[in-house]
Design brief:
Chain lengths: 247, 247
């Protein structure tokens, strides 16, 4: 079995790997790779596993065809945010150039990727209607609850991507997307400009990275929100050390 | 004067060119270039003028520095939709790779580009609240009027970009953004999948290209909308020739 872009053999979707006893080849770029396959090619310095696959094809003298190049380009686009993330290297762009030359259908891929289902719009409307700007626009929040989700016809999993839209607010240093489940509340946090989403998440019993973190608080919204607001104020105070002029 | 990425000398922003009598060098990739400068380098086959500038710098043996590479990369990103448009060629990606090697600040550019002012959100909310799906989702419309604009705190120029968001609706073949000025109505049209925005625009007294066109109707909304709806039905009927199975 060839297991690609996956850090854990047992996580292969749609197949019961417990029943598989043959050899496993694992090609991956995740730093969290468990390194358990029979043959491993793991390089966390690579922006996309798709780039490693091109290297493997080159080493095997396999010519690039459109059928190979299009899915490989999709892998590269996905992992580099369409060449917008900081992991985009000169080599990323050169490999993408070779895939284009081999016939990769760049525009077709992007047309497919950018299709929004109707719930994208209805849920976006709910998120926007709940948006709040705090602390001179440094903090941007939005909340989704069961009633809003039902009105929009969406699922909880559909909600997560909107935190990036909140994150892109001009002057914003912290974006918080709040999933209000009724009996508990989940905060998704994104930060920049010296503010740590991680610090806030940790204060709320969660965790993550400095720019992207999360926490679940086992309390109704009003109570959980109070805890969030306190943690945000504490983190803004910390991040503004040395003190910055206040308007 | 070096006039770059501009098709008409007289359109140079922020300067009164009528008073300028010196030599003008024009480097541009627009097919509509008026070809009036003293020295011209015009190549409509190039995805971005920034790529032509790299060629000029190479011909002049000017080494690429970060100060040159970052604005050149911005030009390339802007004109190729961050390497997502169909004008992205292998050469586009290779030139971008060279700019990255010269220190171009790709991630910083994208961070700056993706900042949304507060009116982005308030206006998006208005657009979403007015969204309509017609003809089984093949047609997506949204309308902005003076009252909505005032509520959002935005200007008419802020409205135009939202047509692309409408255009990305799954199953959509025609997106219409309607600017309702009260005494007249402006339609911005985007189409795909065999439907011609141009045909609809022409039927309404406007014009443009097949995938992107526009028309202004000198009538109040209800009347103009009636004309639009008729033109849309006629174009859908035409585009569905040969007849397609109706649900």
């Amino acid at each position: 079995m060839l297991d690609v872009d996956n850090n854990d053999f047992s996580r292969v979707g749609g197949a019961d790997m417990a029943a598989f006893s043959g050899p496993v080849v694992n090609i991956d770029h995740h730093g969290t790779n468990l390194r358990r396959a029979d043959a491993l090619l793991v390089d966390p310095s690579q922006p996309a596993t798709a780039m490693m696959l091109v290297d493997v094809l080159d080493a095997l003298n396999v010519p690039l065809t459109e059928a190979l190049a299009t899915p490989l380009l999709l892998g590269m686009i996905t992992d580099t945010g369409s060449f917008q993330f900081s992991n985009t290297t000169p080599q990323t762009l050169r490999t993408a150039a070779r895939l284009l030359e081999a016939g990769a259908r760049l525009n077709w891929l992007n047309e497919q990727r950018l299709q929004n289902p109707p719930t994208y719009y209805t849920l976006l409307r709910e998120v926007l209607n709940s948006m709040e700007f705090q602390h001179d626009g440094q903090v941007v929040l939005a909340r989704v609850n069961e009633a809003m989700l039902e009105r929009a016809g969406g699922n909880w999993e559909d909600v997560d991507p909107y935190v990036n839209m909140l994150r892109n607010a001009e002057g914003g240093k912290l974006a918080v997307l709040i999933k209000d489940f009724g009996d508990k509340v989940k905060f998704s946090l994104r930060s920049r400009g010296g503010v740590s989403a991680q610090n806030i998440a940790v204060a709320l019993g969660g965790g993550g990275h400095v720019p992207a973190a999360g926490a679940t608080v086992e309390a109704p919204y009003a109570e959980a929100r109070e805890l969030l607001d306190q943690a945000v104020i504490a983190e803004l105070a910390r991040a503004q050390t040395p003190p910055q002029p206040q308007e």
